[in-house]
Amino acid sequence: MHVHKLEKVWLAIGFITLVAFLTTVGIQAFASGQGAPSGLTKVDPENVEETPPFDDPGLHQIGENEYELVMILQSYGFTPNEVTIPEGATVHFKITSKDVVHGFEIAGTTVNMMATPGHVNETTYTFDEAGSFLILCNEYCGTGHHLMSAELEVE
Ligand code: CUA
Known about the structure:
The protein is of the alpha+beta class. The chain has one helix spanning 5-31; strands at residues 58-63, 66-74, 77-79, 82-85, 90-97, 102-106, 112-115, 121-126, 131-136, 149-154. It is built from one helix and ten strands, in the order αββββββββββ. It is elongated and about 75 Å long. The mean pLDDT is 92. Residues 76, 102-103, 137, 139-141, 145, 148 line the site of dinuclear copper ion (CUA). The chain crosses the membrane at residues 9-31. Residues 49-155 form the Cytochrome oxidase subunit II copper A binding domain.
């Protein structure tokens, strides 16, 4: 079979480019540890309530006006579903889902992440102003999706 010379050249360019991309992605993911961050901390979705920190969900003070907020998401609710924090507090959220993928959005803030079963999803936010914040599931998760919310009071 005759393959045109230019065709060979382009095949070679395609192959070299593919190897270069895969090498770059591989080095980033494995050697430099820049893989998807949500995959770093795992939790058995069947035993969430027995596994720290989810065996003690809620707000825990870890510093001067610094807190860890542990929340479990499931169809169709948040545990706990009412939290009060002091104004100016920095909150480290640690969340997971017991069943399907849920969303975790705090309306009026930049907090917006997914809660994926098997993973601990984390983010940090400082609440500089007092007020009532609505925590919403923004990932369609079933018939009760629109009912899935929690409240965060900053005072
Ligand atoms: Cu949970 Cu939508």
